[in-house]
Amino acid sequence: MKLHGLLGAVLMAATIPHVQAQQGGSTAYPNRPIRYIVPFPPGGSADGIARIIAQQMTQVMGQQWLVDNRPGADGVLAANIVIKAAPDGYTTFLGTNTPMSAAPALRKVPPYDPVKDFSALGMVGHVTFIVFVSPTVPAKTLSELLDYARANPGKVNYGTGNAGSIVATAQLKSLAKLDIAHIPYKGDAPATTDLMGGRLQFAIMAPIPALAQAQAGRLRMVAVLLPRRSSLAPEVPTIAEAGMPGVSISPWQGVFGPAGMSRDIVARLSRDLHTVLSRPEIRDQIGKQGVEVQTSTAVELANHTRDQYLAWSKVIRETGIPQE
Fold first, then answer.
1. In the structure, how many helices (H) and strands (E) does the chain have?
2. What are the tens digits of pLDDT across the range 10-46?
3. Could you read off the pLDDT of 160-198 as tens digits, one per residue?
4. 65-69 and 291-293: which strand pairing?
5. Residues 65, 112, 263, CA angle at the centre, nearest 5°?
6. Which ranges of the chain does DSSP label H, i.e. alpha helix?
7. HSE-CB of 184 using CA atoms within 13 angstroms
8. CB atoms within 10 A of CB 64
9. Are 324 and 109 in contact (CB under 8 A)?
10. pTM of this prediction?
């Protein structure tokens, strides 16, 4: 009986690593490449940031991070792939305000819960959105722009090229009690052209391509929608510094996995992501893509995701932005 018991213990000890490896257990993880799903097409800013992160995580973790571009439906297609994946740490996701805030908040029936259906791993940072003003408008500050709009009710046009711009400007419009007209665009590039030409009076946009035009004196920048000033334009005040602290919509990026991931794997991915994003050269590379790096714990990202989803939902409900 003693020999039988000893053999049983040996067999059990030999089996545990195999079971842990099958389940993605912490002693074996990672032992194969990790899929990194990106809800945007190749070539854009988000894709460029994802590839920077993937290259660095490959080095840190000793297993290749494979970027898998799955654009479409405001990120819903990519998000659903992640939701359905095994929570073993081998499927990760570049979650941004588009699939995690816009997609669920802009639909009457949300396609998923951005908090409960994912495992938050860590923040990447905040996307630099800037309030750009046309040179035809006599306003050099946000306060002067708002005063100009109030003095010209119904005569000021603003442009938007994405959901973040739509919701952020709707919130600004509501808080400042403005009578201004919305002109939607398919991207920031055509909006930038009309802003310079005077068809638009202002627009909240990502820095590319409008930043170059502002630096050349063809546009003005009066505020950034960030918690702190942007390294791309440090002379431009934050929206709070400019006098509108109530604007809470701030586009962002984070890394997620499917719901139900083990604490050990979440901790490992969160720690390694923090290591990567703490490197000055990586922060600089990502900053040039228009994102101010801000690391976080997994819990902090989960809280941020919840808060932004609630903020988007509130603005959409209160301003009457139509839902699908």
1. 12, 11
2. 444 444 444 444 444 445 899 999 999 999 999 888 9
3. 998 999 999 999 999 999 999 999 999 899 999 999 999
4. unpaired
5. 50
6. 2-22, 45-61, 76-84, 97, 103-105, 142-151, 163-176, 188-197, 210-215, 263-277, 280-287, 298-319
7. 8
8. 16
9. no
10. 0.86
